[in-house]
Amino acid sequence: MDMDNPTLCNELDRVEKLDLSNRAHFKSLMTYFSFNFRTVSFWLNSCVFPEEMQHYPQRLSANSWHLAENAVGFSGTNDNHRIRPKLVNQFFPNSQPLSLTSRYEDFVWQDSLGTNGKMVGVINEHTIKCMEFELGSGFKSIIETIEEKQYVHAVIDSGAVLVGFDNAVVAQKILETVGTRFQGVLFPDNSMEPVEWKILEHSGRILPKSVSPVLDHNAFAIFDEPRCRGSDLKLSNDAVAILTLGTGMCKDKFMQAAGRMRKLGRGQRLIILGSSDLMKEVHEGVVTPKEVLEWTIRNTASSNTASIVPWANQGLFYCTTKGKPEQSISDENSSLRDNYSGSFDHIPISEAVSIAKAYHMSRGGWNFSPDNSLARLVDGIMRQSQRFGSPLVRAVVGMDEECERELELEREAEEEEEIEIPSMKATEESEWDISAALQCRSIMDIPSKACVMTIADYLRDHVEPKSLTNIKWSGHVMGTKNFFRTVTNSDGSVPTIMNHYLRPVKEYIRFRSGETLFISGREVDMLLCAIWEMPTTLKPDISLQHL
Predict the structure, then answer these.
(1) Are 464 and 470 in contact (CB under 8 A)?
(2) In the chain, count of helices (H) and strands (E)?
(3) Most buried of 143, 243, 267, 336 (most Cβ within 10 A)?
(4) Is 452:517 a contact under the CB 8 Å cutoff?
(5) Would you call 325 exposed, middle or buried from its count of C-beta atoms within 10 A (0-12, 13-18, 19+)?
(6) pTM of whole model > 0.70?
(7) How far is CA 454 from CA 20, 146, 451, 460, 461, in A?
(8) What is the pLDDT of residues 185-220, one digit of tens each?
């Protein structure tokens, strides 16, 4: 506080004198206390932390099985029906002959059993092509595709490529791209709660879909990711939609997204769009709709497998707490020892479910007779886990389910592929007068024998993925040939891709111009010798720095 201002000191020396309604007074408080560490610390410890970080020793737990009691619902896909609560059963029509009055109804049900195969065939036959874009350029690629393929009527962003962009901004850009081919752009306004479909017209006017004079089939449609399920728009009979792919996309999400084209196969078609990295995961080589469908099925199988133990654990918890609300109360373990000290191991899924059953039985004091409905439910859980999980292995760890999920996500992100790296020969470094660098004021003054090149140029020619070139690398950061070229093939040629042989950056030269030059370890030793041999009356124009 300004001690030379006795009036201000007198105003702020006691809390009883504070008057927040006085603007000048309030401004003085802001000036002296807004960045005061003791003030901030007092506020956090006395007001924020006690209110926002309350911790209770126990919690009341429930899960999807509790919600599924007496539930009846509808889903357009059935890929995950085996990991839904067993209280909700997938309905399969009875194939036995029925009475004459219900034979037509039975025919309709039987016909619905072929829906999966029919949709697979429709997508496979009525997808124009599969396209890819470089990572980080999804929005740009969508706009370029709309501009190039003038028959595109919609974007179905099931891959969340447009996440982070405001839908109104996307709509404006698309409207500028399509010009007069459409009377407007139909998009979900995510700035409102609840989200409302609106139409952006060429005049700049934005109206709710229900009152706009522009009809659905006369507008370009944008389905953001949340609207890729359940949304129903009446697009033109010959509409073509760009459908984006996302990492780990399962078949049900893909099918639901394709289903936004209500007349797919009857005039309407798709263009599938995914990042180059994702397309390599789908298939090495030219990607077709068939490979995309197979990829989504593999993802679905992996997702269902990973869900067997959580599904069984939740079901067993439901069975052992049904009618016993006191058993739904569990201790809240928040210490690091409780959450992370358990051992980590890989065991069969069926064994993991058996361990979970023993835990819940002992915890809930199980005493039901075998013919009890809950006992039969437990038996059903165990049989299904044994049937679908016996040949599979799952990693288990002694911790609560939240921390286990956290670690499983980390393990998925850190999953590595074992690759046998070809043996290489260390490159013999080329000679150049590195002592000349001591008097260089810019990289441009470095002798040409050093073969200096930019980071961007090297990444473009020798490093994958090629999407790295989308980053705006500084043109002032370069490296010598000796720094970049670390190995050669047995025949002396330079490998095309150097991902496994990149040299870590340890030392570099900094020029007065602000430019940076990466050099090899041998070049560093030679440069140090040159610096030590310099006359004391001279000073180098560069600085050698170490990371």
Answers:
(1) no
(2) 19, 19
(3) 243
(4) yes
(5) exposed
(6) no
(7) 58, 34, 10, 10, 11
(8) 999 998 878 889 999 999 999 999 999 999 999 999
